[in-house]
Amino acid sequence: MPDYPVGAVRTNLRIVAALSSRTDAGVTELATELDLSKGSVHNHLTTLERLGVVVAEDGRYRLGLRLLDVGMQVRDGMELYQTARSPLAELASSTNESTALVVAEHGDAVYADVCDAARNDRRVRLGTRLPLHTTAAGKAVLAQYSLDEVEAYVETDGLQRRTNRTITDAASLRDELRTITDRRLAYDRGEAFTGMRAVAAPVRLPDHPPAAISVLGPGERFSGKRLEEDLPGLVISAANQIELTLTD
Amino acid sequence: MPDYPVGAVRTNLRIVAALSSRTDAGVTELATELDLSKGSVHNHLTTLERLGVVVAEDGRYRLGLRLLDVGMQVRDGMELYQTARSPLAELASSTNESTALVVAEHGDAVYADVCDAARNDRRVRLGTRLPLHTTAAGKAVLAQYSLDEVEAYVETDGLQRRTNRTITDAASLRDELRTITDRRLAYDRGEAFTGMRAVAAPVRLPDHPPAAISVLGPGERFSGKRLEEDLPGLVISAANQIELTLTD
DNA sequence: AAAAACCGTTCACTATCGCTAAACACCTCG
DNA sequence: CGAGGTGTTTAGCGATAGTGAACGGTTTTT
């Protein structure tokens, strides 16, 4: 079996991906970048335009907001999001920091909800995807995996480095995951973004994929007793609240 | 030329649309609904799964959050959004109501940003699409169209009714658009959702498609002097601020 | 002001591949 | 145990996605 049974869909999504990283693009530009013929790119673009995904303007093309609508619809349909919503908002106001709900998907930690206590730093926003092992919430999710699943993750995705503090050693990762399981708490000390820290608690639910919630912010505010005691207590109790409302 | 040069993309997006309206789905279920063979649906689903758009679980399939990421990326890339962000937030806090940034796309009013003063009513969220003529902001956008463009909109999209107050008559629409242009202000008195009102101001920018910002909320709070004077003043001055920062 | 160079669009062609229908493997029932 | 569900796989054919070249338009170069 070929890797992609419907090859045209792959081509199409390659075009969408190329468009998503720029404000707009021309046919030739995309054709050369993706190594396709101009005619083919043109066909895909007109198809996407007819379907309302792409907007054509003066012979140039850009992605519209249709995919945002679909994505938001998916997110709103998540039972976990619905119940985590208000606990997450309360956690944000009680800590006066940004909070997030994270689920695992295809080896990524995906931010399914983000509450900004105030100005967000724009590095983590709704929908952001980061390698699981580089974030507090991601590690809290990994800690719920079986040893085989963790190994499979390390094998397929690799322990990609993002900062000089990122865990890139499989043994260290296993050690940390054990600690996380024991203490029900995960830390991120600048492992995804330099200078950014986070505290996360796993959210375990029957018949649900593993998830986690986290509090994140600049390193200056995340230290001492606040980092070691205050934030952990608030995060864990919020996680408890979510688990309880969803297991009744 | 056929309507969709790359037919497989159309099939694929039909499957995505079907998936987006439910939590998950099976192959047979989708095949019967879309009038496709099981094998074809299966091919599309495995392709989407390999590409990270769909998540397979126990032989059932659901949309993942990849499209949300793409959609948010598109939104964040919009220059208008970036500059409207803080004025919109300020407008939300000064009115203590929800505010929105709306752009037109394929005949829809699309909510490119939504600030919730408090609990949102969930009927309008980020990415929501409504017919242009049914919302205050949408009408503020239509008022920037030429007469031909308005006629084209009425012709292709039709004046679909959403509530008993929706404008469904082309002549009434033209009259109202003229008033909106003159006063630089558009109202929605329950034309999209019964009991929901809004005040909107057009945002005109050179080299940018027409846009608008609006304040929206329950009808009880939107009446009298507040509706006729206070809110209009605040909305228009916010629109001014956006236009000025973007035309320098 | 030519003309060269670029663009997006269109066209004819063909090897590919998307789609169908049927068979298959697996599961859960009564 | 078989009957009726799944999701998956297969064989095969007809449609089509992609190519490469040509077309008309605009912009840039000379």
TrEMBL record, chains A, B:
Q: Which InterPro entries match?
A: ArsR-like_HTH, GAF-like_dom_sf, HTH_MetabolicPath_Reg, Tscrpt_reg_IclR_C, Tscrpt_reg_IclR_N, WH-like_DNA-bd_sf, WH_DNA-bd_sf
Question: Where in this chain does the record put each HTH iclR-type domain?
Answer: 6-65
Q: Which domain of life is it from?
A: Archaea
Keyword set, alphabetical order: DNA-binding, Transcription, Transcription regulation
Query: Known CDD domains for this protein?
Result: HTH_ARSR (cd00090)
Listed GO biological process terms: negative regulation of DNA-templated transcription
Q: List the Gene Ontology MF annotations in alphabetical order.
A: DNA binding; DNA-binding transcription factor activity
Q: Which residues form the IclR-ED domain?
A: 66-248
- Give the Pfam families listed for this entry: HTH_IclR, IclR_C
Output this protein's name: Helix-turn-helix domain-containing protein
